[in-house]
Design goal:
By secondary structure, the protein is an all-alpha fold. It has helices at 2-24, 34-62, 73-92, 99-105, 110-117.
Length: 121
């Protein structure tokens, strides 16, 4: 189960890094000018580094597991969706998006996904 959250967190951080990296180059209006854009790029770089570390941790946790693909594919997809919602939440300040990332986190663990598919968890 820890590998699922590790891959989801890595995917979330990677998607957020990409969005913040792109947003920092969109023009001078982002985050109050040059200093804000530089800070957004620094934040994006730190998120990318954290993403690589979390993916390595997830790979070590899944190593040798017979159902390794089950611990990678769905959490990465869910993490990407969470990353999009988190980035939109931070960039646009839409309070309506606040519960969506937390709700998606409920579906990350493999036993929960098996129950939803109708299988035994």
């Amino acid at each position: 189960m820890a590998a699922d959250f590790s891959f989801a967190g890595a995917s979330t951080a990677l998607v957020m890094a990409g969005i913040f990296g792109l947003a920092s180059f969109t023009g001078p209006g982002f985050a109050g000018g040059d200093a804000g854009a530089d800070l957004a790029r620094l934040f994006a770089a730190s998120l990318a580094i954290a993403s690589v570390c979390a993916m390595l941790i997830g790979a070590l946790l899944v190593q040798g597991a017979p159902d390794a693909a089950d611990h990678v594919l769905a959490p990465v997809a869910l993490g990407a969706a969470i990353g999009v919602f988190e980035a939109l939440l931070l960039l646009t300040s839409r309070i309506a998006l606040l519960p969506l990332p937390l709700a998606l986190l409920l579906f990350v663990p493999l036993p929960v996904r098996r129950i939803l598919r109708g299988g035994r968890g």
